[in-house]
Fold this sequence. Notes:
The protein has 23 helices and 5 strands. It is mainly alpha-helical.
Amino acid sequence: MEITSLLTAVWILIVFIVLFFLLPQKLFPNRIETSSINKILSNSIYAILVVIMAGNLLPRANLFNWFTLLLCYFIWPGFYWLGKNFGQAKNLLKDYFINKYLQVLDLLEFDTLRKDFFEYFSNKKQNYFLLLKSIIKRSSNPVTILGISFFIIIFSFTITVNFSQSLKELRFPFVESYQTLLQSWQVLLNQQNSNIIFLPSIIAAISTLAGINAFEVVRFFSPILLCLLILIVAITVWNLTDYKSIGLVTFYFLAVNIFYLPKEDKIKINGLPKSLIETVLDVFGQNLSEYIFSQNTALAFIILLLTLNFFNDFIKGEYKFNFTVNKRNLVNILTCLILLGLISPLMLLPSFITMLALLIIPTIALFSLSLSLIMLILFLEVNHINFSNNFNNFNSFNNFNSFNSFELKFILPIALALFFASICQFLIYLTKFLLKHYSELVVAVLAIAISITFLPKYPNYQYVEYDISARKTLEIAQKYPKKQWLIVAPVEQLAISYGYGWYEDLNNFINKYQDKVKKKDFSFSFPLDVFIFVEKKPFIFFKQEPNQVPFSLLTDLSYKNYRSLAGRASLEQQAITLCETYRENHPELKLYYEDEVLRIYFIPKNTD
Length: 608
């Protein structure tokens, strides 16, 4: 099972890299003198923009599929090519296809296909070998070799940690992943509503082009997104400070998750409000000791970092402030700002502050970014302002995510890593007079040595179901004909079964049939195969029940029935009683699956 999951993860990663990095490089050769990294990031913005637009516009016209997606993807390069070759397009296309046709005839006639095929790959192999040799020659410095080796080791550790959960389990470690999956299915099935969505559009694009179930894409996209975020943070630090060592140190900070402060659970006495200092300390204690990851926040933060990279290249490049020559960077900056404003408007504030610092005093840009992020997070938390984005306004899944509102607290560890990197930058400036060329190395080694005192921790995931529940739902979806079965279960199974079968909420099912099954003459007459998921041991959502719960949350059905342990236990017991009562008079009700935590009842469809 893990080998199959590993191959699936590798395939999804390949499609993601090709779609957002490699293919845009071929479509848009950048002629402006800029860094190779910024060229890659610049072209990836085009792919992000196209995918998001396609995911929001095509489903409304019932046109979202792999062909229309590729058509949107290549439409701008096509216009770009026609603009350059207007008036000669017909002759150029004619000559191109004639030449290709003659080449194919020559290959078939003289049997040189195999020879040319091997010669092509031999040349490619030689070119890559020469490129690798030149890279090794330029990196022959012992310090560079040490840095590359350190990067490879830490990156390998990062991949192992982040992908381990997805390879072992099918259930999602984050609540919002279920909502993302449901919205992705709506895009794939051309059922998208009027809300603007971002991450589900990317998931749907990868799913349709890779030919992979959207469930698998969501399952592996979280670790891919997190690894990408860590890399872009390190690249941004490198670009803003011009020190590779500081970027490497920042990468290490985030990769091993060293910001670990043991959290003490304190009970609020008599409901007394906390002081400002206590609130701030609680924010730091909670968010640095818990594994908080939001895909939506990560996407917004990546866009923010891309904005700063493009702006830094715009003002520092060879053609700085040349709006005619450097218009590509200007377009990228405006595109990123628009996307950032749509995804997370509050993120615009630190981006503008940092861009202003880059214009006035570039050396404090990293410090300004980190400080503005920290102050923004503290301001929101102290004033009890939870920032909800467009993803939480999804009607059919609104109750599911009500307890996990979208907040910016996830970026606190990143903000602190950036703050630490800015301190390293100032230390290099201060020690240059004494250590000269060795100041960068000494500060980097000292920073890593200090950080070793902080131990990495295993992520504290926020599960909402047993892993076996997700596995059995997927098994039913693969085993039974499409749209010929119905699952009665907690709300998590709605997203997993969507598009394959039908779903009914367990609480609604109990309310409808709890009294009816007591009658001996009552019989279910579903035209579908029905699977009723009942937990023998109710799943525990909270390690410790909250001491105080808002009234609005107490009245929320998702919290009452599935998040509260007492509510979930009561509901599951009612479900067992209902099924066993019906089973006494109807032997056709059978057990599809049973273990120590889960029991699945099966009612075959009525063929009469």
